[in-house]
Specification:
By secondary structure, the chain is mainly alpha-helical. It is about 75% helix and about 0% strand. The protein has a domain of about 80 residues: Tetratricopeptide repeat domain (Serine Threonine Protein Phosphatase 5, Tetratricopeptide repeat, Alpha Horseshoe), CATH 1.25.40.10. It has 8 helices and no strands.
């Protein structure tokens, strides 16, 4: 009799676990995820991207005539090794201030690094006109001739 009670108890436990599992699965399928209205209103950053960076990117795109925003975003892209995006934002900045030697020097250097020789030569000429005594001119010319 005791053996029968033990088997009966084990079968009851197994049936209870199985029913509990399927009931929980059914509830989870029908449940709607809870949303935080404050979090839903704000754009979500890609994994690992700080909100400050997103704000800077947004500012540069929303304010295409903001020279400082274009330069800041270009430098962010330089830090993460995205040279093509760096070039894009440096070119935006150079259009806004075509005689800014720092931007022209950075743009020339990046164009050389990316192998864009024709644009690098053009930007180097622009830099020579804007700042003929720029200390980096000789080195940039040397790098460009080596490519």
């Amino acid at each position: 009799m005791q053996k029968q009670n033990l088997i009966f108890g084990l079968v009851g436990i197994v049936i209870g676990v199985v029913l509990g599992y399927f009931t929980t699965q059914s509830i989870n399928k029908n449940a709607t995820p809870a949303t935080n209205s404050a979090a839903a209103a704000a754009p979500q950053a890609p994994a690992g991207m700080p909100q400050e960076v997103l704000a800077m990117l947004k500012k540069a795109n929303d304010e295409p005539n903001n020279f400082e925003a274009q330069v800041q975003v270009a430098m962010l892209y330089r830090q993460i090794g995205r040279r093509e995006k760096e070039v894009e934002f440096l070119q935006r900045a150079a259009k806004l201030k075509p005689t800014d030697a720092t931007v022209l020097q950075s743009l020339t250097q990046t164009l050389i690094e990316t192998g864009n020789k024709a644009d690098a030569e053009s930007t180097l000429k622009q830099l020579e006109k804007a700042d003929p005594k720029n200390a980096a001119l000789a080195e940039l010319k040397k790098q460009l001739s080596a490519k």
